[in-house]
Amino acid sequence: MPDSRARARRATVLQYASVVMSVVGLLFNLLLSPALKDAELRSQLEGYSLILGGLVIIAAQVCFLMWVHRVVRQLKAQGADIGMSPARAVWMWIIPLLNLVKPYHVMRDIAERVGGAHFVASLPLQWWWAASIVARILDRVEAKLLAREAAPIDDTVSTVVGLLSSVCAVAVALLCVQLLKEIQVRLDRRREGLDEVEGPVAEDVAAAA
Known about the structure:
Layout: H1 5-35, H2 39-77, H3 86-91, H4 102-122, H5 125-147, H6 152-191, H7 203-208
Helix pairs in contact: 1-2, 1-6, 2-4, 4-6, 5-6
């Protein structure tokens, strides 16, 4: 049976790394960047920070999707299919427009197969996905502001948008870690036979009852 524990650990570590990068970028923009008088040096540091942060975020997303792929395979092997193949579950995060809605449904279906409706209700799925959508919107707005010609009002708005974007990114990563841990714990319990999901009753048992 496929095991998702190693992928869960890697995805969790990289989500925490993305939180660190977001906080470092936030502190740089608020404290260090305004103090630098050399515009060229400031621009270089900002570029390096964006590249490093982008690489960490991409690695975190890739590892998270690898975990989703393995979890769907594991559920399928346990007879708790979510109604789509592991590859299709991953593609829901990549296809434009679909990735605005479908990933939430994939995670909700996974949680429901793992622990039932009460478990789904206990998870911060809606907060996680709402923060993810807001973070995407803020990222697009920030990119458009940075593409404009420099202006004092644009700089102020860009700073505020960047601050909100970083806060949302941290929230998304931390909520993602919570989902990862709680779903993986339930999967581990099922794997060890400690948290069996109710299945159809055998005919002779039903007749005896």
